[in-house]
Amino acid sequence: MLSLACASAVVAAAGPDPIVATRQSAMKEMAAAAKTIAGMFDGKLAYDAVAFKAAAGTLRTRTGPALIAEFPIGTLGPPSGARLEIDQARSEFEALARHIGMLASTLAAKAERAPPSITDDMRMGSGPAMGGGSLLGKRPAAAEADPAKAPAEHLLHLILQDCSSCHSRFRQKVL
Which residues lie within the region annotated Disordered (predicted)? Predict the structure, then answer.
């Protein structure tokens, strides 16, 4: 019992696993970037083309292969929020990470050409959802067929949808 308590104290004194800490930091950066962009489209933050470009760049940098690299084998499960199932469904996890990366790269490319104010072609548009009830906008099929044709706001929503899918499948609450 005493050796277990000492081992726990040594682990606690050593601090969190550096891979887990780096991964958590990256996730916080992505969340902050997405929140910045969403705030601009929601009108909660003033639109700033430079901040939009920076936030979209953060999403591009932190997704795709970089996101996959944040989850090496042996760093999953407690104390991390990453479920062990990532390794059992590695191809599914990596496909989601690559898809988010592709969407983030497309969004970042649009942000590179961002005008000084939000334009109608950057927005998803108003009106009823089409194609069977998607709540993400008017052109879900077009966005999946060619994301470059999707408005920036719609791309953000697709990114958030992928993030939610990944978290619901591969993230666990850690106490």
Answer: 117-147
State which residues form the domain around 28: 17-170
Reading the block at residue 106, the tokens are 């497309």
**In this predicted model, what pLDDT tens digit does every residue of 59-87 receive, in sequence order?**
999 999 999 999 998 889 888 899 999 99
pLDDT tens for each residue of 109-157: 999 999 999 999 999 875 434 334 444 444 445 556 789 999 999 999 9
Burial of 17 (0-12, 13-18, 19+ CB in 10 A): middle
d(CA 165, CA 175): 22
pTM of this prediction? 0.81
What is the tally of structural domains in the chain? Answer: 1
Q: Give the chain's end-to-end CA distance (angstroms, integer).
A: 22
- Residue 3 domain flag: no
Q: Tell whether 39 is covered by a domain.
A: yes
